Amino acid sequence: MELTPADLGDSRAIALFQMRAAQANASQRPSRRLRNALFSSGKSNFFIRLWAKETGLQGEAAQQAVRGVSGQLYGILFGLGGGLGLNLGIQSVIMGLVANQPIGAAVMGAASIAGLTLATQIPGGLLRRWGKTPLSDQELETLLQAEDDPLERSYLLLIREALLQNNLPATAQTELKEAIQVLGMALDRLPAAPAETAQRDTVSLRAEAASLHQQSVTEPDRVAAESLVRRADALERSAAAMEKSATLLRRNSLLRQELQAQLEALRLELGSTSTLGADAGSLAQVASVARGVAREADALATARAELDTPQIQKVGVR
Fold it and tell me: For the chain, what are the domain ranges?
């Protein structure tokens, strides 16, 4: 079975583009962490948007893939086009106007145009080739060696098992590819496993807030009373945020465990196809479950982003 970068989810697809660009250019070494390409900085411009259409990827992932290899692409564009093309163009002008050699000028002019044309076409051709070339065993092993997240490694091990499936019926192969695509999408949407952090007990926070509210009622000084109320409100908001954060962390943990189980089940099922045969219905069920996990992961990521966005309370001055 063959899988292209677009089948593997955005982060792995971008890693493959960076890896293939590095292999195509011996002077460019792969980064220490290939998946860091997903977080490459840089703004989109005309060339980024133009080349993104050649990757076979969608949306922001396509532009991120191009940004990750833009140094090589710009080198081709400006080296071949700006260097060779412009140089030949200048020689054409010199031969035509100064040396009075119209035939030589015409040849140089044609070569200059050819150089400029090649310079604009080669980057797109490279991106199309990198996007359509199936994942190789060596590339998969490189991704595995660079990965330390157990969930991500389970996904890559599933892909390894899928690459070994050469006798699947067309229907089963379609369902398997869809399951892999959706599982990769779910992995990209699911927040990373958070580090354990110590948090205050929300019960004690709410108790302290209630005590401050009570103090504000008996406080004779208006300014001091309002300060106590604002402090109590801040503690209540902190408790509410901590409770929501704990809920999201628990959901994230459960979704990661579910995804791990789905990956392992599908991998083991593929391992048994050589003797029991492929069950397209079972693969379709895995794809359906994976879509549900992807939806929940998307909702979880959105809620996590909202929680992480600072909420600024406006304090009026009277």
Answer: 1-137, 148-318
